[in-house]
Amino acid sequence: MAKLQDKVVVITGGISGIGKASAELFNKEGAKLVLVDLDESKGNKVAEEFGGETIFVQADVTSEEDAKRVFDKTIEKFGRVDILFNNAGIGATKPTHEVSYAEYRQTVNVDLDAVFLFSKLAIDYFREQGSGNIINTASMYGWIGAAGSAAYNAAKGGVINLTRSLGVEYAKENIRVNALCPGFIDTPIIPAEVKEALAESTPIGRLGTSEEMAKAALFLASDDSSFMTANTLTVDGGFTAQ
Ligand SMILES: NC(=O)C1=CN([C@@H]2O[C@H](COP(=O)(O)OP(=O)(O)OC[C@H]3O[C@@H](n4cnc5c(N)ncnc54)[C@H](O)[C@@H]3O)[C@@H](O)[C@H]2O)C=CC1
Ligand SMILES: CC(=O)C(C)=O
Description:
- Its EC number is 1.1.1.304.
- The chain is of the alpha/beta class.
- The chain is 44% helix and 16% strand.
- α5 (150-170) links the parallel β5 and β6.
- Butane-2,3-dione binds next to loops.
């Protein structure tokens, strides 16, 4: 039996990197997908590759109006929503003294505030339905300090504790909330010129792949993790143990 048969899954940042690999795996496991991202033509192409049970909704995750439209389209097409994968994100690599307040706000807006916005809207449907599952892509940088990405790290730390708080708050309503905390993964968010150094700094000696993150996300999305909520899954090649 497929692990996500007929489950309706909304994946933000679903057309690149970790989100796209997860969409591919979830699709193989029988899910109906709503891919959410910024680039309309790329999004429609990716959705077409997946076939009839996938739609793409162009949206900026920081916009409340766009977020509401995502759920309206999801209900219009599939009649329900079972899983929300808050995965969209932007990196931020600059010394803090060079970061403007507007840049800080944008990082926190995409990487943290949007997770609250989408979760809140999903929870309304989940409470009505009597079940639901939220997966948030945080980061190992939510656990540790690292130079040059203070806003990003603050946002991801916030995602971890937002996850715990929502998980505790809605556990009795059959709504699970967990976070995936990847280490350095080979996706477009990592600048090409630092990949080798990041691989060397990782105990396993390489970057992780999007496909490896997708398998971890599938664990959180499926009943394989049925007793897990308000918690985190760190998949980092040993980085945070150093
Ligand atoms: N690649 C890595 O080493 C790590 C990535 N992460 C997190 O994984 C998540 C996925 O990132 P990757 O797959 O690595 O990068 P990616 O750049 O391949 O994917 C991120 C996606 O989010 C979308 N996105 C960005 N801003 C958006 C907005 N305002 N509205 C809608 N969509 C938006 C992008 O267009 C892109 O498709 C992010 O939350 C990132 O912070 C966490 C730890 C490590
Ligand atoms: C993007 C990135 O490098 C992490 C660790 O989140």
